[in-house]
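Quick note —
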Amino acid sequence: MPNKIAFNKNYPDITQSDKLYERALKVQKPVTQTLAKGPGQFTKGVAPKYLVKGKGSHVWDVDGNEYIDFNAAIGPLSLGYAYPAVDNAIKQQLEDGITFSLMHPLEVEVSELIKEVIPNAEAVKIAKTGADVCSAAIRVARAFTGRDKVFCCGYHGWHDWYIGITSRNAGVPGAVQDLTYTFEYNDIESIKEALDETVAALILEPFIFEAPAPGFLQQLADACKANGTLLIFDEMWTGFRIAVGGAQEYFNIKADLAVFSKACANGMPIALLTGRADVMELFNSAVFSYTTFGGEALSLAACMATINELIDKNVPQYLDENGKFIKDGYNQIAIESGMDKYTRCIGFNCRSMVTFTPEAGNGLEVKTLMQQEMIKRGILWAGFHNMCFSHSDEDIEYTLSAYRDVMPMMKAAIESGDIRQYLKGEVLEAVFRKVSNYNIKPKSIVS
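Predicted structure written out below.
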């Protein structure tokens, strides 16, 4: 029988997942459309590879195993799977059509709603993916300032201007790579020292897991303004989650431009660029950024329904309160089990992350062990608590009970000095996100 949300006797049977994966290897390169969903982040031999159903906060894999999901489809599910208000809006629009030969009224209506809730939204541009609006923001910033160079901090998609500074930069011309520089979050002094008349834009995630130091974001905004550099907030994760108006509302800081996707349409593909009217005006003439599916109506209907639900149900407060319960609960269990020297849950309540200290040993091995044991207990675990409105008290209480059950095993494995003997599958792969070796330079390129 397939595993349920329970302390199952056996690890889940993933026969059908593995069969599909073997078929995929013959026809797909790569087999996953985004690394965070791929087999490298879920231990082969234990974790499922394919999901076929979601309802609320639970998902089912192709073998029928059920799990509580704390990945939220890698961010888009702010409300939950098959959420009635959103699904009904999609179904209603589907009766009239999906994509049309002229513009659709929802393009106007969604933009008006965005202008109401996002602090810097003097104008709105609609697209399909986060990478697209990030690149559009960089292009319009370069056009507006007449400058070329970009400072960045965080993850901003797969396009050349950004991915050229990561380890996965094959195919990106060196001349393009030389236009982007990275900086360390909260290091305001190095940014001030490096900003010069060549820097068009500074783009960052307002926070990832580390909180901004007191005054950091305001000083950043002030430094950019003084230098004539446009400040861009990448709010793929913070938007509509930390507050309906995102980090700009939460921290009371306006960026010149801001980009959103993920949480605003509860799983439907849409992305938004908001910003100053004088900058955005360039999209009407000098800057080209268009896409056939930008006005696709099902996603627009989902976006309207999702944002209205986020407002009406005060979802950010729910995410904060329930996320705090699970984050604090994890840390308390770590203390009680003597694991607090090895692990800690960090981040903002709406999106927290389990971390392991150097004393725990190989971080990927430790994470793999916890993942396999949480999956056995019916939790699709990847180290994050991406909270959604459908996560119930029962989900959280059960998850904490699973942590309480797993911690002693984790402690024994760590202190044995040989974590691999506890593993039933392959060790997880490292993520390529740039987290060190920052190369911030300018002041007209210091040699």
